[in-house]
Amino acid sequence: MNTDIQLGVNIDHIATLRQARGEAYPDTLEAAKTLLALGADYIVIHLRRDRRHIQETDLQKLCRAFAHKVHLEMAACEEMLELALKYKPGSVCIVPEYPNELTTSGGLKIEEKDKADLKQKIHRLQEAGIRVSLFIDPKANSVRAAYNLGADIVELCTKDYSKAKTQKQAQTLLNEISLCSLLGRELNMEVHSGHGLNYKNVREVALIDAMQCLNIGFSIIARSIFVGLPQALLEMRTLLDRE
Predict the structure, then answer these.
(1) How far does the chain reach from its first CA to its final CA, in angstroms?
(2) How far is CA 224 from CA 17, 166, 229, 230, in A?
(3) Band of the pLDDT at 2, cuts 50, 70, 90?
């Protein structure tokens, strides 16, 4: 069993708090430095087209400080592609993005008509030395589609698993995530998961053998309100420990 699972911490909601008052704090760069020093493997940010939390200046500062530790979530549009090529984060995750959604609502719907354009965008990012992930639902056809498009990484959406109403439903969805993780590994892609993972449901996903990284944000930032950021991160890292 692989005993080394990475943790990417999403700091979008640090920026949400800042934007709520239009202040210069809390500072995303300070948050990122703290989290990386405490044991986060990298920092996740979603630069949305509506700029509701993360701003271009955040991306610029973070990439200038430690580009290889920045994982940028973005829509598959030319505007975001150009920003990624300009600031060169270590990796990019292409996610679906819709107006007025509270948060990402599910995995990419990889339509036949969009494949050529998406493949070209992936290639342009990779040519610039940026690793590319696709955020997909845990379905075998989506994993194979990501592979055929040339993605380096697949991030399996855990939204449905995190919202499961019964233990039986959660186990069925967990099995789907596990099988897709194995398929991703067989196709020589790195396998990540994320969306809705928290202190109560993360352990089972972390124990999936083929899983290599979990991307978690809201639950860690929410927990930090009560126990502080160092303790919130430590508690999550403990749950990810496979030994």
Answers:
(1) 10
(2) 13, 28, 5, 8
(3) very low
What CA–CA distance (Å, rounded) separates 67 from 240?
25
Q: Which two tokens stand for residue 151?
A: 């993605």
Cβ-based neighbours of 228, under 8 Å, separated by 6 or more: none
Residues carrying an active site annotation: 46, 73, 195
Query: 6-240 belongs to which homologous superfamily?
Result: Aldolase class I (3.20.20.70)
Placement of tokens 């509506």 in the chain: 50
pLDDT in tens, 71-114: 999 999 999 999 999 999 999 999 998 777 667 778 899 888 88
- Report the alpha-carbon distance of residue 208 to residue 130 in Å, rounded: 26
Residues linked to residue 213 through DSSP beta bridges, in sequence order: 6, 192
Contacts of 225 (CB under 8 A, 6+ apart): none
Residue-range domain boundaries for the chain: 6-240
Q: Are 155 and 93 in contact (CB under 8 A)?
A: yes
Share of the chain above pLDDT 90, in %: 89
Q: What is the distance between the alpha carbons of residues 90 and 67, in angstroms, rounded to a whole number?
A: 5
